[in-house]
Design the sequence.
C-alpha cells in the first residue's frame, strides 16, 4: 500500500455504526490504535461490552509504513469477515487503525456473499463517521539533559512539532521524543547545539 514517507493517514476518534441483514445485526467499531498492545486492550473492552455477540471479527493496520496488519474471521467462513474489513481500511489509505465488527446472529444464514457484504458495510459505515487526519511520521529519540537547559530543549521541540512521549524531570532530565521525519536533520542539529545534551536514536518509526 502506497504511503507518503513523511506522513500517514489515520482516524481521529472512535466511531460506531450498525448494519442489519435478515435479522443479524453487525456493529462496526472503528478505533485509532498505535500498537498491537493498544489494539488488544480495545478488543478486550469490546468483548466485555458485547458478551452475547456470536462473533467479534476484526482487522487492523499499524505502523507508519502500514506493514503491520492482521485479519480474523473469528469463526465465520474463511475470507468473509476480516479481509472485507481490512479492505475498507485500505480503501481509505489508513494505518494505525482497527475496525472490529461485532455480529449478533439473527437465525438466518446469510451465505458467503451476504457475510462479505455485511462485514464490509459495517466497517465502511463506521469509518465514514470519524474524521480522517494526516500525521507526521516520527522518528523516536531519547534525549538526556541538565534541567537548566530545559527551555532550550522545549524551544527546539516546539519549533519542529516534536512529540514528547515520556519524561522524567529531575536534576538530570530524560525524554523520549518523536521527531517528525521531514524535520529530523534540522531538529537534531538544533538539539545537538544545546549544552550537555545527549541524543540517542531508538528503533522503529512512530
Sequence:
Amino acid at each position: 500500500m502506497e504511503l507518503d514517507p513523511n506522513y500517514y493517514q489515520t482516524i481521529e476518534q472512535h466511531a460506531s455504526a450498525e448494519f442489519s441483514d435478515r435479522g443479524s445485526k453487525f456493529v462496526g467499531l472503528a478505533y485509532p490504535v498505535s500498537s498491537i498492545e493498544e489494539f488488544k486492550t480495545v478488543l478486550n473492552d469490546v468483548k466485555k461490552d458485547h458478551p452475547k455477540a456470536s462473533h467479534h471479527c476484526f482487522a487492523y493496520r499499524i505502523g507508519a509504513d502500514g506493514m503491520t496488519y492482521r485479519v480474523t474471521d473469528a469463526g465465520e467462513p474463511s475470507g468473509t469477515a476480516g479481509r472485507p474489513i481490512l479492505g475498507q481500511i485500505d480503501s481509505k489509505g489508513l494505518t494505525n487503525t482497527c475496525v472490529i465488527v461485532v455480529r449478533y446472529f439473527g437465525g438466518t444464514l446469510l451465505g458467503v456473499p451476504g457475510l462479505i457484504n455485511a462485514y464490509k458495510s459495517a466497517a465502511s459505515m463506521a469509518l465514514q463517521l470519524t474524521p480522517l487526519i494526516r500525521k507526521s511520521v516520527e522518528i523516536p529519540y531519547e534525549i538526556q539533559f541538565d534541567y537548566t537547559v530545559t527551555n532550550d530543549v522545549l524551544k527546539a521541540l516546539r519549533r519542529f512539532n516534536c512529540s514528547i512521549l515520556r519524561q522524567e524531570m529531575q536534576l538530570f532530565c530524560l525524554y523520549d521524543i518523536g521527531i517528525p521525519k521531514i524535520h529530523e536533520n534540522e531538529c537534531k542539529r538544533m538539539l545537538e547545539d544545546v549544552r550537555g545534551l545527549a541524543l540517542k536514536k531508538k528503533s522503529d518509526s512512530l
